[in-house]
Amino acid sequence: MINLGIIGTNWITEQFIRATDETKSFSLKHVFSRTEAKANKFIKDLSKKDIQVSTDLDEFFSSSDFEAVYIASPNGLHFQQAKLALEHGKNVIVEKPSTSTVREFTILDDLAHKNGLFLFEAARQIHEPIFKKIQHYVENNRDELSGATLSYMKYSSRYDAYKAGELPNIFNPKFSGGALYDLGVYTVYDAVVLFGQPDSVNYVPEILDSGIDGSGSLTLKYPKFDVNIIVGKTKNSYMTSEIYFNRKTLLMDSGGDITHVKLADDDKNITTLPTSKSDNPMDSEASEFARIINENDQETYEKLLKYARIVNRILEQARTSAGLVFGADEEK
Q1: Which InterPro entries does this chain map to (predicted)?
Q2: Phi (first) and psi of residue 323, to 5 degrees
Q3: Fewer CB within 10 Å, N or C, the chain?
């Protein structure tokens, strides 16, 4: 197993560590947190022992007890932390979106290649068997492909606090918050992996007083069809996501957390596609990242990097088209 350090002690970090345990892919050795108490509680909740704790990033990355780091801090902190990791010779797994700007992603990309390291953007859903089933269907029916509507809207657990006058990171432009970068990134990954790079991008958001998008509608234009994406953190939606193949339509229960896929035709015949899904949605990506590192699978790695480059470019183009400004835009 690959020795692992982590940044962040939230629910998604816990889920990733449980995935590494289940798949025997990485072994947790070191935890970085702003407070020692938080780190120790996190370690205790996971029933781990003999785990090092750091509250200083330089000390953390100078440690020789791990070769890869998983970063799940607020979006606006990803770049500096990932850059520091690569400068210290660590392979990086960073939650999506890995950066706030194309400039930041290019710096990390170049640094990883220069130092012979791996840089993974953790787009978990594209590694899951259920997504692979969708991808297989799209590839085998590409001549009939005629567009898609992808939806991912969830009322944020932090939105009530925002409405009460607080400014949670996820609603703060300083930390690259908002619906597009938090939930839209899932659907943009869906589109890029399934359909490739679009010709043009346009985003129409509902902008909150803090300056970020609470929800929005994103259009990706391809040569022969459009992909319409609906995202939001200020409301819930229960509409399916759909991929169109003229007379047939693939129906997915979500554009982000896909658990069921059905195929419908114009006679209203609906067939559920047989799929498998792990109890932990991060199992597949944990296994795949470890496999790529262990086997030095450069072909698969470069394919994932290509997806990440396109996704980060689309996100920046989308928010630029809508006039959304992040704190990272001011850093040159």
Answers
A1: Gfo/Idh/MocA-like_OxRdtase_N (IPR000683), NAD(P)-bd_dom_sf (IPR036291)
A2: 75, 25
A3: C
Give the H/E segment covering residue 289: helix 283-295
CATH number reported for the structural domain that contains residue 8 in this entry: 3.40.50.720
pLDDT in tens, 241-300: 999 999 999 999 999 989 999 999 999 899 999 887 788 999 999 999 999 999 999 999
- Spatial strand order in the sheet of 119-122: 52-54, 26-32, 2-7, 68-71, 91-95, 119-122
Any residues with CB less than 8 A from the CB of 225 and at least 6 apart, and which? 145, 146, 147, 148, 244
In this structure, what are the phi and psi dihedrals at residue 254, rounded to the nearest 5 degrees?
A: -160, 155
d(CA 31, CA 282): 19
Name the DSSP letter for residue 183. I
Range of the domain at 85: 2-117
Mind listing the pLDDT tens digit for each residue in 201-232?
A: 999 999 999 999 999 999 999 999 999 999 99
> Considering 72, 88, 117, which residue would you say is the last residue of a domain?
117
326 residue type, one letter:
F
DSSP conformation letters of 112-150? HHHTT--EEEE-GGGGSHHHHHHHHHHHHTGGG--EEEE
Domain end point (choices 117, 143, 160): 117
What span, in angstroms and rounded, lies between the C-alpha atoms of 204 and 242?
20
Answer whether 244's CB lies under 8 Å from 162's CB.
no
Cα(209)–Cα(172) distance, integer angstroms: 10
Cα separation, 213 vs 96, in Å, equals 17
* Selection from 28, 156, 12, 25 nearest residue 74 by Cα: 12
Nearest to 289 by CA among 305, 267, 273: 305
